[in-house]
Amino acid sequence: MMIGKKVLETESIPLVKVKPLLEERSKTQELSYEQNLALDHVTKFSKLSVDDAEKLVAELEEIIKKNQAIKIADIMPEDMADMRLMFAKERGSHKREELEKILKILDKYREIKE
Fold first, then answer.
1. pLDDT digits (tens, 9 = 90+) for 52-61
2. How many angstroms separate the CA atoms of 76 and 108, rounded?
3. Is the separation of the CB atoms in 45 and 38 below 8 Å?
4. Domain residues of the chain, as ranges?
5. CATH number of this structure's domain 50-113
6. Rounded to whole angstroms, how far apart are CA atoms 105 and 88?
7. Could you give the residue ranges of the DSSP H alpha helices within 2-95?
8. Average pLDDT for residues 40-55, to the nearest whole number?
9. What burial class does residue 14 get, using C-beta atoms within 10 Å of its C-beta: 0-12 exposed, 13-18 middle, 19+ buried?
10. 65, 18, 72: which is closest to 41 by C-alpha?
């Protein structure tokens, strides 16, 4: 007899929110190989605090979809070329003005971090 697990729901979250979840889980049980890799990755590549990431995603959601906003917050692209690469596979294109507005918002959050 095989006992399976079923996914009840999925939700995209910023990378920085993964770290506290994994750290909390590690207190009660040993993390799997994949979970340890994820924790190492998020520790190395998180660019914002959880609060700032949530605020940034909320601001970006006024311009783009939530899953796009989360990707942008995780990667923090620095210029128009990076922005175009992020949206290269998306249907429909974003206007240059939208991309410039996103970059201005990102610059504001980069300043907070420094």
1. 999 999 999 9
2. 11
3. no
4. 15-45, 50-113
5. 1.10.150.80
6. 20
7. 15-28, 33-45, 50-60, 66-75, 80-86
8. 91
9. buried
10. 18
